[in-house]
Write a structure and sequence with these properties.
- It is a single chain.
- The protein is of the alpha+beta class and 493 residues long.
- It has four domains: 145 residues, no CATH class; 114 residues, no CATH class; 51 residues, no CATH class; 140 residues, no CATH class.
- Helices cover 60% and strands 9% of the residues.
- It contains 23 helices and nine strands.
- Helix 11 packs across helix 15.
- The radius of gyration is 26 Å and the shape is elongated.
């Protein structure tokens, strides 16, 4: 059974718990407990027996207390071992709090031997680590944190070279590298964050009486929406995910990004390393995702020097779909910037954000040069045929929008700030037949020439609906610009 199939199996397991217990409050702790005991053998879901491991912990403690550099202590339900490699507390924890987290597949029969070999290897190789062994058997019984992806790959290679087979594997929501699962969670718990998001998703479906329509794809889209809400409003995060302390918002967003990458199949080691090394602790000013806009603009502009814009857009969309950064040229450090700074989801999110701000500028300059009606018709043409020629060329904003945002993503730019009904209307417009689009387009061009008031009684309902939606979008951007200006000036109008 593939990891994707295992994820589906667990997802359906949790879905069943909700559906069979409509009056029972399913908490994140419930999901977390099910997740840590989840295992698959011979294609069947098995529940791990939570055997006591205190004796194994004691043997490991007695052994490693004799080794120089090893620090042993209890940490909640875990026994922990550290190798600080001579670093002071602050430096060590700075490295650990931004570490790559490894889940090593191991059953109770092999636990002592594998743990001893791995810890000794890391000490001998001067690998900075904080590692832990659970007090009871679970699929994350052996967890290792190391400071860099290079060290993570060394440890993973060593583990995969060991001659043992485990009846227990790490949970399937983690990037797989043989016997080792890799992830990032900063100062948080990856499994707890996943449990919080899954609980929020299923409660949303429960409250809307649509549990039966819960799917993995829908869950991925839910997380993406939650990330957007959290980025735009830090209080939304704390109001809905109360387990996340203030100051840990950035780690929540980055961990959610890792989860998204695992679920949609775009995460790889390079992307994971990029998320790990990325700076940004706050979300109030969108610093987590949008601190590197200029770097992305640089990438797009440099790519456009080598390729036509359609090919550049295909590169960007393919990366967001497949997560393979090898499709980018190494020239001008383009591939390196992509790998280091942008996961697939971050890349698309940043493009949409830049596109949103550029569209706002297009509307502002078009209104300034022409009038409100021209802006409405320009938006109508964008919605219908992804055409931008209704906007002014002034200041190069129209060309900038067309360069940065693939046509296929222009709809995502437009809907980024709209309510759900308006978003659904945009989706409906996207799915109109080509024949009907051509009819509506003729109407829109006619309206531009003759004026809306002269032809309003002669145009079809679909055209009217598109114009009304365009007016709504236009008013949304105008109101947003007014508020931005009000905030800058400190005046209220």
């Amino acid at each position: 059974m593939s990891k994707s199939e295992e994820r589906e199996l667990f997802f359906e397991h949790i879905k069943k718990i909700y559906m069979q217990n409509p009056d029972f409050e399913v908490t994140p702790d419930t999901i977390y407990n099910e997740l840590k005991l989840f295992n698959v053998q011979d294609g069947k879901q098995m529940r791990i027996s939570n055997d006591n491991l205190i004796k194994i912990q004691a043997r490991l403690s007695n052994y490693f207390r004799k080794r120089e550099l090893a620090i042993c202590f209890s940490k909640g339900p875990f026994f922990a071992i550290e190798n600080r490699n001579g670093y002071d507390d602050k430096t060590f924890y700075d490295k650990i709090n931004t570490s790559i987290k490894l889940y090593i597949a191991c059953d109770i029969k092999n636990l002592y031997n594998v743990t001893s070999l791995v810890f000794n290897y890391m000490i001998d190789e001067n690998i900075i680590t904080q590692s832990k062994i659970a007090k009871e058997m679970r699929n994350d019984v052996l967890v290792v944190r190391v400071s860099t992806m290079e060290e993570a790959e060394k440890v993973s290679k060593f583990v995969n070279s060991l001659d043992y087979n485990s009846l227990v594997s790490y949970n399937p929501y983690i990037l797989s590298d043989g016997k080792v699962g890799m992830t990032y969670d900063g100062t948080l718990s990856y499994n707890n964050t996943l449990s919080l998001l899954m609980n929020s998703y299923f409660n949303t479906k429960k409250n809307s009486n649509s549990l039966d329509k819960s799917t993995m794809e829908d869950f991925v889209n839910f997380i993406k929406r939650e990330v957007l809400f959290c980025i735009n409003d830090s209080e939304y995060l704390h109001n809905n995910y109360y387990d996340i302390d203030y100051g840990k918002e950035g780690d929540f967003i980055k961990t959610a990004d890792v989860i998204i990458g695992n679920l949609d199949g775009t995460l790889n080691k390079a992307n994971l390393e990029g998320i790990q090394v990325k700076k940004g602790e706050n979300i109030g000013g969108n610093s987590v995702f949008y601190e590197n806009k200029e770097k992305l603009l640089y990438v797009i502009y440099r790519l456009s020097n080598y390729y036509d814009i359609d090919y550049v857009h295909r590169l960007l969309m393919d990366y967001c779909k497949n997560g393979n950064a090898d499709i980018f040229t190494r020239r001008d450090l383009i591939r390196d910037i992509i790998v280091r700074e942008f996961s697939p989801y971050e890349l698309k999110l940043t493009i949409i954000d830049i596109g949103d701000k550029t569209l706002e500028e297009c509307i502002s300059l078009t209104k300034e040069k022409y009038d409100d009606d021209q802006c409405v018709f320009a938006i109508s043409k964008l919605l219908l045929n992804k055409e931008l020629d209704g906007f002014t060329r002034d200041n190069g904003v129209r060309n900038k929008l067309g360069l940065i945002v693939p046509k296929e993503w222009l709809g995502s730019v437009v809907i980024s700030g709209l309510d759900e009904n308006s978003k659904r209307m945009v989706d409906i417009i996207d799915n109109i037949s080509l024949e009907n689009k051509n009819i509506v387009m003729k109407n829109i061009n006619r309206i531009q020439k003759e004026g809306l008031s002269n032809v309003i009684g002669e145009i079809d309902d679909l055209t009217k609906d598109i114009i009304e939606l365009s007016k709504y979008i236009y008013e949304y951007y105008i109101e947003r610009m007014r508020k931005e200006e009000e905030k800058k000036s400190g005046k209220k109008y």
